[in-house]
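tool_call: predict_structure(chain=1)
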Amino acid sequence: MVTNRETPDQTSQAGAGAGSAAPADGGGRPRLLLLDGHSMAFRAFFALPVDKFGTSTGQSTNAVYGFASMLVKLLRDEEPTHVAVAWDLSGPTFRHEEYEEYKGGRSETPPEFPSQVPLTQDLMRLIGVANLSAPGFEADDVIATLARQGCEAGMEVLIASGDRDAFQLVTDSCTVLYPGKSLSDLRRMDPAAVEEKYAVPPERYRDLAALVGEKADNLPGVPGVGPKTAAKWIAKYGSLDELIAHADEIGGKAGQNFRDHMDDVLRNQRLNLLATDVELGADVASLVLGEADRAGVDALFDNLEFASNLRERLYAVLKTDGDGGAGEGAAPAAEGFAVDLTVAGTGELAAWLREHAAADTPESDTLTPQAPAGLALDAVWGQGSGRVDALAISVPAGAAVFVDPTLLDPADTEALAGFLADPGRPKVVHEYKGALLALGAHGWSMGGVVSDTALAAYLVQPGQRRFDLADLCRRYLGRELEEDTSGDQLSLDLGEGGDAGSGRQHLLAVRAAATRDLAGVLTAELDKRGGTHLLADVELPLVDVLARMERAGIAADREYLEGLQEEFASAARGAVEKAHEVVGREFNLGSPKQLQQVLFEDLGLPRTKKIKTGYTTDADALAWLAAQSDHELPGVLLHHRDQTKLKTTVEGLIKTIADDERIHTTFNQTVAATGRLSSTEPNLQNIPVRTDVGRRIRRAFVVGEGFDELLTADYSQIELRIMAHLSGEQALIDAFNSGYDFHAQMAAQVFGVPVGEVDGEARSRIKAMSYGLAYGLSAYGLSQQLGIAPEESKRLMEDYFAEFGGVRDYLNAVVEEARRVGYTETILGRRRYLPDLTSDNRQRREMAERMALNAPIQGSAADIIKVAMLQVDAAITDRGLSSRVLLQVHDELVVEVAPGEREEVENLVTHEMNSAYALRVPLGVSVGSGQNWHDAAH
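tool_result:
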């Protein structure tokens, strides 16, 4: 753990100046950690797949995430007292002034990288790490200057850099942490390690590099002279200067090359020398690791949509003795959670509940609607079921009870079941749906749940990715909650014969108390933000609906899926054979290196975008090659990837078929910041419906035993209808009410032609434009989507807005209003807070603007389908029908229809979905039915 008791300002006031440093905690030697910012950020960028790390608005985040992960490891393992990150600036340096080709010929920087640098710098600032740079100098020079200062001040210096020039700085007091094969692998390059690797001491590494050259810096060395020859020469003569003095003694072709390229060697030697006297406006004494601004870090991580595990690891290494690392804006420090714990033995729970949790007695511990009990479970859940190993109940006066379900007698079981189900006994729980599934597997139901702290926190801060109880307690209560971090769900090893002092039993009781206290704070936050009704009237009631949907699952045709799996596997094998045939030899289609050799060397096809490992062979590149070349290999490779991906998808579905021959997906309410539900294990929302193959996969989802058919109902063009409603654009409203094909009518208005003359391309462009605006798409993004020049897409957007000016005015107003108040709002008042709308950082500001455009429309669509689900479920229940909702796929509901209920269910679903919200245009519901999901499409 990193600890520091003084801020940089306090250190300065205490009299520490240049050339001096505060001692490490406990009086030890101070340790200075210096990071080469761009070097480490590039390493993180290429180590983590850019397509797997990004926000819902398209901001790439792999470099920021990887950099933060590396920093966490460094802070944890090295425990520095002083830290700084040195960054390159975009302008030329003194080295460019001497040699114009310096660093020329480098690969083009990936477009996803530059915007991540200021975000990483923001993170450093928020956690108290200095960002330093100097015009005309490189990050290496900044590091060299600070390293010299640190060594002179008696500090131990560590340099994290992937630039070998840093090896010249290595001494007994200065070590370079050089990247290895993996993101977390850093090799300690001390004097012995440098000499072992290069056969020269660190002070001579610069001489060796001058002879060998540095490709990354475009510094050519002596032809035919590698590190071994250079090291042998330096060892013989002692230094490059002495080698040059004896140049005539070097024989052979290498010696002649050396003499012929002497000017290059001398230039390299000058340019390799790192400056150690750069004016920085800061010295090592001012680089004490500062305190983290937790509120700022939380906001940044929320905007970047990072999971909370990285946040927790970061806070763990930044924690201070004084306030747990909390910076400005964090909750104040507070006492822990005190519980008066009873471990209920057999026959004791009913009495405890009568004393402490009765609904109709006046004692101080009596529960009221204003004072709910906290409930915590040691449980597992998933695939529509679960198991409870233990539970704890905490009441407001501090009394708590720990319950082992295996010790309950009939009276205790009845009392517990009554308490859990009683709507008159208010309760709060963390992750309500999981509790419903786990308790339901034991035959217990829940009533009276007035808050789910995970859901409440999600409504307060929808930009977060995860809502761990410990993190929420730290944020909102200023209290530390000991956690078992073995998994996402609490898993306690209760052992045998535990008593009231058992740490594990106490932990569960503390979780119950923490949930209860947290619920009160979050309720107050929701009241201030106008979100109380969303929790009470939408999200909490929806939990029960989703739990029943997960329990029901959807029937799957295993035999059909296995046939598809073999078909796709066979097609993939056929593609491999075809690829080998057209090339004339065998190669590994899954190896980018071998693909590069075959495509660009053997076949001589046009080069694609240059990347660190050569030239990209991703799907976009292969599609481009297929269009640019008559060679059939790119198309064969694309077919192989498609079939392999489909095989993997089907394999995943087969693995999730449960013993009841149904697939039980998990619906997540707290993942998408817009309010949309997501589906996992497996994801049934990403099975394509517009492709033939996707429709074939949907055939595998069938009506289950005891039911007649599947019915699907979905909203038609709901995002565009919401855009028409919110913008009030009359021409858009008229287009919906015209009776014509909507997109054709829109295209006719934009291009000024009759509807009957609108061709497919014009319709497609306007459709892409309309949906793109609903998703916050820029002119550049539209050009990429349509495959047209940015100038053309800009003109198309201008023509669109000329016809539908109200849409443009609405979109502009959304951003400006959000900038003024700090959030966007849906039709039901679901807010998304966007503090970066006023950020000085252009990348963060533009990212927030895209979110502001996206959130009201997408969020309103999510609101409407959730209300529709509640109304459909309630109507089915009220009428005593046996039919049931199985799936929600964005704007679509899938219902399993019981015998004899087809007509009533169709009318019911259509009516309830149409009446979910009154827009200025009809909502528009389409219905279909069939024996499987594909046939039920419409």
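agent: The chain has four domains: 8-191+276-303, 333-531, 556-663, 719-858. Proceeding to next step.
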